[in-house]
Design brief:
alpha/beta; Rossmann fold; 2 domains; five-stranded parallel β-sheet; 45% helix
Length: 370
């Protein structure tokens, strides 16, 4: 009988040790290269939330640990990172990858490991039919429909769609083109550009050849920047609208007045000061980021903060010892997540948390306004 207390003590110690283990969340984003600022914002928005949860003992004594690996915006590196996150680091969920291109090769690994792939920063249809993928943001189709409606209201009907000349870019073009058909318009022509290349006058000519009222851009901000610069050099005005994949903060900083009048769809509320006063989630994210690293909230860090809050809700539902399968099932069962200014709904058949889209336009003072 003397052995029983010792045995119970050993079991208690083992349970306590297990409970103290970190809950590892894996992330692959660009931390080097031209998109490094975006990657750091994606990382830091989540870190700010996780730090607050850890400080408040929000997961019953277990600490959240975000492991972020640099993919340098390379598809090959993103795949290697995923292998490392699932293998060496033992991540229970994959979180906040920085694009569809850097996500697609991770999906077979996510399926094989039965792990949640949560909140990629993309509205691409390439990702949305996969059973392990849950998203917090509206789709590119929904963004395009909102842009089409707004442009029609001012008499702009004829469009051309600018997209990358790869698998994901072509998929994005088809999704956006289908939105025009859905809205009763003709399928717009597409202009393909190389990912990562600096555009020259030939790219602008390819757009203007179709004599559009405007071009809808489905790429990162660099393509919008290059088109605006070439158009300004040639004194040839061009009207541009862009999906949320364009980072509005970088666009405003890189070309400033040249981008005035450019429309960008947004899938989260504005991080500007007025919303920090009026919307609890924006206020909380701004305060958490300031406490974490002293940074000012922007669209990217706010989206990452919102996604991190939703992931924490699923982790709480998964119980004190979350497994990969348990977190995946918990995400499907988490239901309504109301963060105060941004609401999501998840279920086994609803993996897209939100359909919210807002249109903004770059105005005076390099500010995007509604």
């Amino acid at each position: 009988m003397r052995k029983l207390p010792a045995l119970l003590g050993l079991v208690s110690a083992l349970v306590s040790a297990a409970g103290a283990q970190d809950i590892v969340i894996g992330q692959s984003v660009a931390l080097s290269g031209p998109n490094a600022d975006i990657g750091r914002d994606m990382r830091d928005g989540a870190l700010a939330v996780f730090a607050k949860v850890n400080a408040g003992n929000g997961l019953g004594g277990r600490q959240l640990k975000l492991v972020t690996l640099d993919n340098a915006n390379s598809r090959e590196r993103a795949l290697q990172n995923t292998q490392q996150l699932l293998g060496e680091h033992g991540a229970v969920a994959l979180f906040g990858y920085n694009s569809a291109t850097n996500s697609v090769d991770a999906l077979p690994l996510a399926a094989r490991s039965n792990v949640l792939f949560f909140a990629p920063f993309s509205g691409s249809t390439v990702l949305r039919s996969h059973p392990n993928v849950f998203t917090i943001r509206a789709s590119y189709r929904e963004e395009a429909l909102k842009i089409i409606e707004a442009k029609r209201s001012v008499g702009s009907e004829k469009a051309v769609v600018v997209h990358y000349d790869d698998e994901v870019g072509r998929s994005n073009y088809e999704a956006v083109a289908a939105a025009y058909v859905e809205a009763g318009a003709a399928k717009p022509p597409g202009v393909a550009v190389k990912r990562g290349a600096t555009l020259d006058a030939a790219a602008l000519d390819a757009v203007l050849r179709h004599a559009p009222h405007y071009a809808l851009v489905t790429t990162q901000y660099g393509v919008v920047r290059d088109l605006l610069k070439v158009a300004a050099d040639r004194n040839t005005p061009v009207s541009l609208a862009a999906l949320s994949f364009v980072n509005p903060d970088e666009l405003a900083e890189s070309v400033g007045p040249l981008a005035r009048g450019t429309m960008v769809s947004q899938v989260i509320p504005s991080p500007r000061q007025a919303n920090q006063v009026s919307l609890p989630i924006v206020r909380d994210c701004a305060a958490a980021l300031l406490a974490h690293n002293g940074a000012r909230l922007n669209y990217t860090s706010l989206e990452s903060c919102i996604a991190a809050h939703a992931l924490v809700a699923a982790l709480k539902k998964a119980g004190p010892l979350p497994t990969r399968e348990g977190v995946l099932q918990a995400m499907a069962a988490v239901g309504r997540v109301d963060l105060g200014g941004y609401t999501m709904q998840f279920s086994p058949v609803q993996h897209q948390g939100s359909h919210w889209v807002e249109l903004t336009m770059l105005s005076r003072g390099n500010q995007f306004v509604k």
